[in-house]
Amino acid sequence: MKKMINIIWRHLLLIFLVIIWLFPIVWLVVTSFSSYKGVNTFNFFPEEWSIDNYVQLFTRPDTAANFPAWFKNSMIVGVCCCIISTTFVVMVAYAMSCMRFKSRKGIMSFAIIAGMFPGVLSMIAVYFVMKQFGLIDSLFGLVIVYSASSGLGYLICKGFFDTIPASLREAAKIEGASQLTTFVKVVLPLSRPILVYTVINSFLSPWMDFVMARLMIRSKDANDWTVAIGLYNLLDRNLINDYFSVFCAGGVIVAIPISILFVIMQKFYVEGVTGGAVKG
Amino acid sequence: MKAAMKKLLQGFKNFFADFGNAITKGDIWTRLSLIFMGAGYFGRKQYIKGIFMTVFEVLCIIAFVGFFLPYLLKFDTLGDVERVAVFDPVTMTDVVNDYDNSLLILLMGTMGIVFVIAFIFVYILNTRAVYRLQVTEEQGKHINTLAEDIRRFANDRFHITLLALPALGVILFTIVPLIFMVFVAFTNYDENHLAPSKLFTWVGLDNFISLFTTSATATFGYTFVRILAWTLIWAVVATFTTYIGGILLAKLINDKLTYGKRFWRTCFVITIAIPQFVTLLLIGKMFSNYGIINGLLADTGILEFLQSIGLVGEGLSYIPFLTKPGWAHIMIIIINIWIGVPYQMLVATGILMNIPSDQLESARIDGATNRQIFWKIIMPYYLFITGPSLITSFIGNINNFNVIYLLASSGGYVTTDMSMAASQAKEIDLLITWLFTLTNDYSNFKMASVIGIVVFIICAVFTLLTYTRMIAGDKEEEFQ
Amino acid sequence: MKKKVLSLILVAAMGVSMLVGCGGTGTEDSQSESESKNSEAGSEDKDGEFVVKQDAIDNLIASSEGKTVHLDVWCSETTAYQEVMGEVIEAFKAQYPDVSFEIVIGAQSEAGCKDRVLEDPEAAADVFVFADDQINDLVKAGALQEVVTTYTYDPAVTNDEATVEATKVNGKMYAYPLTASNGYFLYYDSRYVSAEDVKSWETLLAAAEKAGKKVGMNIGDGWYIYSFFAGADLELTMNADGSNSCNWNNETGLKVANKIKEIASNSAFISINNTDATARMKASGDLVAYVDGTWDATPISEAYGEGYSATKLPTYNLDGEDVQMGSYAGYKFVGVNSYSQEKGWAMLLAEYITNEENQSKIGVATTEMPANTEAAKAPELQNNVALKGLSEQYPFSDRQVVGGKYWDPAASLGAGLADGSITDIQQALNDAVLGITQPAN
Q: Deepest in the core among A24, A62, B427, C416, taking most CB within 10 A?
């Protein structure tokens, strides 16, 4: 009986929590189906339902909202970023975890300290460095900005590599394999969870960031923006009354692929982050 | 800590001692390579390597003289010729003088300094390598061929291959900007001295002094202390609430009495999947003075109740969730729990599922209650594992730009503290968002840099305090 | 060939006049030197104005042959603006059929234009539309090209005098006037409050209360709070160094602030920002009078339907006397980036956008009052309800010349008065004035 009460109690609590957590999400979704374009401040549910916001998003790009182009740009940046970032992170993590060289600890401490400098502050300097290379206003430049310093985020991945038994690598070495071979043939295949974790994280960052992107992409032509810049711009005070529900629709569209990615990869993701955290 | 410093100093000493050794004991080829970096290799018949190093040296010198030197020469004043453009109405173009751009001088000067240091480093390494080559030859041992040397980069020197590109990225996009911004803190780079049209120059410690002083007209000191305090409170509270919340939620979901674990977990994970800025802007709109939450609560009597107990001012027709200090502070922390707990729950789930079950079993046999097991076994284990990530997220919260900035802007926060307003800050600002406002809206780069340095020092001190744990160097081996 | 010779002569003539201009006073610094040069060049213009200017344009066309002229234009992100600007630019291209243009219109709100330009003037648009309050900062940063001379028309003659005055910093003109309607006034719904009611705050609030409706204004904003203090002739001006002078904390100021607090505490009054207000009008319909500008004309006219009206701001009663509220009159200007690579074309485009024909086109499309006095007479504009309200308020408005330190303290003051959290008003005024008048960095 006591157990029964316990079960009911904890499920009621969970339901309550889920309602709180999903409340804004549900509002996002229902507002995206509203035929009224502005912010609805009195009713939770729209008075008239419509899928026009989605139709507008995909078929009627205008000067303020050009979702297909934004999506394409973000996709390009996201994919390139996750290739470069993941490569960098894995490379640094392998060097720090599986190899022993003189300046290793020095570099590790240095990396931790350097990673702490507030990115918001160095933005303007990064911008002018990129300008020297002629890389502002281009997606390629954005990719570089997002992934160049990614090596600093190696710690979790290194923690994961630390858990791979050294005996495996030694066995490979005895068989005459070089470090390169060991890295590619022995360590990487065992690191699927952490690879997934790193890939997801580095794929997501371009979808989330609007501050850096807005600085790097000087163009005010909606064709050149990423999803983050574009959606953020829709809430400008001149646009919000005409585009709020379009903004919501955009948010939903972005969330769908990422949610699917998360749900499928959940297992790997958890393993990756905890495996890494074990010896973070 | 002390030992680490000692080791570092020792390392430096050895590095230069080796170099001195190479010069004093080197033969003609080794000494010649002080001038021509490739000479030592030619002497040992490693022609390709010799050519490579010499070309490298020449390229570096060309880059330095042709590119960095002009900037470095003006580094002491940051330029002294201001831009003058005279419009020619006939050709419809400007006649512009040969002006100095302080910003470029500072930036390229910084890069030049980093470049020189890097070159000296390689130069000394090269001399040492050449000397080692000389010793090898004198001892009559085998000298590597080019192919063998290259192969080493896939083997015992594989770390150099691995680290080269990431390090270059970090140097260009983290180190150079870092040094640059540190330099800016010692200049008068602000709205009255905006490059390229105007010059700025060195002012010594003036900016640091103004950060710590308060007078009737300058309120930076006053504002700084308050924002620093809130930043620290925020970082502690935000870190612990999400951390504890994550564990509790994970325990709730993963308990064997809970049905549909995957479903519950998915419900929470969905909130991670929506880009943070979307959810934050949305929640900011929901809780704004005339947003939907106030709309829904309008006739429920809650507002009147809050007014009667003095939590909401009499004159208000809404609950100032995000517009009054106090209310906004608490709401921001609550919203941050909403944002952060699902992620922490994921982490906690992973760890709790991997707790060594033998310990739990033996505790149960000893008759421990669930509560005892949780506090005596699970929590210590969990803390042990996530300790380092706790520090990372603490630092992350000190620099948590998104939550504060987006909620303040979409919620419509207006400062009520006049002295703070005079320094362009809000009560809910963190150091990082204040710094952003200063650069973005007021072009006050000098003060922003000073604040940035302070943030950096705070983070660095916190990390160094936990330094040994984070690097966890000694335990690596035992784990593997 | 003939043209080349002519321009050579012109250059020579200008050179001579320049020498003459500064020959007398050898000690003059370079700034006055260039000034005198300009004025000399100006007098030269009077003789053969058309020939000289047409010749300069012809030269420009000739020198642009075989290349693509790339120009970036930034203007407001609203659809109406973007569309009409697209038409204007197509027409501009058609004027010069021999030149190949690549003109990109960017969406950048005028309010945020300064921040984006100052991030890096070299990478900002060649031609941009901005609000007049940004002109001082833009000039200070050297981002605006001085309008030394114009080629197709003279903006100083065709535009409203006050507007032209506002484009000048230290006596030099730095932008081309576009609109003169960036101010605020009172919208009201005549179905609930009458034209008599809206004359004063006292009658307006009483009428709204009787109808069970609300009256709104965004008091927590420096731009709007100014109107109360300006009405009582209190001072807020910018000094030469960019700081402000302000006497709002004197005796009259205290009375005004008390009055603001009194109005704000009226149960029929709410302090609400533009976005929330328009949303509220549509959603609940209880906001029957609101202080706003022309940019919200469309949503408000939809919400008020046949009751849609606009007029000057109301008076308020101070010591038994009715005081007419002041306001800020704002303008929108077109500026040419001083770092533009195609300065000649950028200037021609800026002139083209702001000529009479296009001002009237843009004005009609966006319901903004053109700065051009002729274009402002268009019947569509004269009969526009919102613009009528604006022009009624116009005599009581001031040009917005204020240093950057004004905004945050003023907003704090307004927000504090609006929600009644300020109890010691004199102290709050003193603090606000201290913040407003602090030195500009």
A: C416
Evaluated on CA atoms B299, B300, B301, B307, the torsion sign reads negative
Confidence bin at B467 (pLDDT 50/70/90): low
Please report residues of B whose CB lies closer than 8 A to that of C439: 217-218
> What CATH number labels C184-329+390-437?
3.40.190.10
Burial string for A12-33 (b: 16+ CB within 10 Å, else e) reads eebeebeeebbebbebbebbbb
pLDDT greater at residue B287 or residue C34? B287
DSSP letter assigned to residue A206: H
Instruction: Compare CB distances from B92 to C14, C273, C344 and report the shortest one's residue.
Output: C344
Ranges of each domain in chain B = 16-204, 214-287+322-479
DSSP string across C141-161: TT-B------SS--HHHHB-H
Chain centroid, CA C90 distance in Å: 25
Eight-class DSSP state of C369: -
Beta bridge pairs of residue A241: none
Q: Do C441 and B190 touch (CB under 8 A)?
A: yes
CATH superfamily entry for domain C2-181+331-382: Periplasmic binding protein-like II (3.40.190.10)
Question: Average of pLDDT values for C361-366?
Answer: 89
Tell me which chain B residues have a C-beta less than 8 angstroms from the C-beta of A124.
439, 445
Q: Which chains touch C (3 or more CB pairs under 8 A)?
A: A, B
Of A162, A248, A278, the CB nearest to B385: A278
d(CA A109, CA A171): 30
The whole-number pLDDT of residue C6 equals 41
| CATH of region B214-287+322-479 | 1.10.3720.10
Q: Within 10 A of C289 (CB to CB), how many other CB atoms are there?
A: 29
Q: Residue ranges of the domains in chain A? A: 68-278
Of B11, B255, B346, nearest to A270 by CB-CB distance is: B346
Q: Which of C129, C132, C228 is nearest to C180 (CA)?
A: C132
Mean pLDDT of the region C245-257: 93
Which segment of B64-68, B71-75, B351-355, C264-268 scores lowest on mean pLDDT?
Answer: B351-355
Q: What CATH class does A68-278 carry?
A: mainly alpha
**Which H or E run includes B87?**
strand B85-88
Binding-face residues of B in 409-438 toward C, CB within 8 A: 412, 414-419, 421-422, 424
Closest CA to A78 of A198, A195, A207, A210: A207
HSE-CB for B341 with a 13 A CA cutoff: 25
Q: Say if the Cβ atoms of C107 and A36 lie within 8 Å.
A: no
Query: How many whole angstroms separate alpha carbon B432 and alpha carbon B228?
Result: 10
What pLDDT band is residue C31 in, cutting at 50, 70 and 90?
very low
Dihedral sign for Cα C123, C127, C128, C132, please: positive
CB of A241 within 8 Å of a chain C CB? The answer is yes
Give the closest of C37, C276, C415 to B416, CB-based.
Answer: C415
Put simply, the chain B residues between 333 and 352 with a CB less than 8 A from any chain A CB are 338, 342, 346-347, 349-351
Among candidates A40, A43, A220 on the partner chain, residue whose Cβ is nearest the Cβ of C106: A220
**CA–CA separation, C289 vs C277, rounded Å?**
10
Residues in chain C: 441
d(CA A70, CA A56): 14
**Which residue spans of chain C are classified as CATH 3.40.190.10?**
2-181+331-382, 184-329+390-437
- Coil/strand/helix, residue C102: strand
Q: Are A99 and A268 in contact (CB under 8 A)?
A: no
Helix axes A227-234, A67-98, angle to 10 degrees: 130
* DSSP output for C40-77: HHHHHHHHSHHHHHHHHHHHHHHHTTTSEEEEEEEE--
Q: What is the CA radius of gyration of chain C?
A: 24
Q: Which residues of A touch B460 (CB under 8 A)?
A: 113, 116
